[in-house]
């Protein structure tokens, strides 16, 4: 069984807009090398950022969300976990990872990266995650 991974909002956005390490991370999910997981609050945040910050059309957002759901598995969270003190909006990524049994959150968000690890979930940058995947080949 492949490794379960949560890709945070900025990883999805960076992977959609540029061809760097976040893009490579999303390719791993699309090719089922890793098992991406998500929760609905993550979809809401992604949609809102694409709309408000990047001016994406509703049709384009719909297509992106469809792709996310196609390559990922949805889990339900309660929203009751509170571990990212400086940015409580990031708690959803940690709770999603815990509920899904994911071992990694891939993020470029400094609040999550500063957390480093919570229980058995590591928070890695896209570059660190890609290096980890390469080391396991």
Report on the architecture of this protein.
By secondary structure, the chain is α/β, with parallel strands linked by helices. It has one domain (4-135): Rossmann fold, CATH 3.40.50. 53% of the residues lie in helices and 15% in strands. The protein is built from seven helices and six strands. The protein has helices at residues 9-17, 21-30, 40-52, 58-71, 91-100, 110-115, 126-135, and strands spanning 4-7, 35-38, 72-74, 104-106, 117-118, 121-124. It has a six-stranded mixed β-sheet, with helices on both faces. The radius of gyration is 14 Å and the shape is globular. The mean pLDDT is 95.
Topology:
Layout: E1 4-7, H1 9-17, H2 21-30, E2 35-38, H3 40-52, H4 58-71, E3 72-74, H5 91-100, E4 104-106, H6 110-115, E5 117-118, E6 121-124, H7 126-135
Parallel strand pairs: 1-2, 1-4, 2-3, 4-6
Antiparallel strand pairs: 5-6
Helix pairs in contact: 1-2, 1-3, 2-7, 3-4
CATH architecture: 3-Layer(aba) Sandwich
User: Whole-number radius of gyration?
Assistant: 14 Å
Please, how many helices?
7
Taking pLDDT < 50 over at least 5 consecutive residues as the criterion, the unreliable ranges are none
Report the count of strand segments.
6
The CATH superfamily is identified as 5'-nuclease
Write down the CATH class.
Alpha Beta
The overall number of domains is 1
Helical fraction equals 40-55%
How many angstroms does the end-to-end distance come to?
A: 15 Å
Mean pLDDT: 95
Give the DSSP E fraction (strand runs of 2 or more residues). 5-15%
Overall, the morphology is globular
Strand order of the largest sheet: 3-2-1-4-6-5
